[in-house]
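Dear colleagues,

As part of the handover before I leave the project, I'm documenting each prediction I ran so the next person doesn't have to rerun anything. This entry is a single chain, and its sequence is reproduced below.
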Amino acid sequence: MRRIDHKNIMRLYQVYESEHSIYLIMDLISGGELLTRLKDGAQFPHQDIAKLMYNLIDALQHLHSKGIMHRDLKPENVLLKNKNEIHEIIIADFGLSSFIKRPLSEIFFKRCGTPGFVAPEILVYKDNQTEFYNEKCDIFSAGIIFFIL
């Protein structure tokens, strides 16, 4: 996360470690999850959806240019900076992210993601496969989010 510097991606500013805890200093995001707004039945104007998707794809382009794939993009991991602006988003939760060029044997979760948002190429992976999925799996997940919106 220290490699990432983009207005629509959660920033990690500092890490402090004590004997029993690790403290991560990150952005304060007050708008909640996109999923919560969707569950509340919110209807968004097309212009706001277009701006949200532009910000999402721009953030993914930045991640991919840094050699990182998120691998778990879903409405729960898209946070709203504030409650008033639906298109002001932050991508969060990099727990399943990986470097794109990492050898297959070093990828911790070869099959990962959330059902309903995961790209098909992740699900059809076989242990003896020499080629595997890449950053395009994030674009598939973004398309599912767009469909839901």
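Helices lie at 34-39, 46-65, 120-123, 136-148. Residues 12-148 form a domain with the Transferase(Phosphotransferase); domain 1 fold (CATH 1.10.510.10).

All the best with the project,
I.
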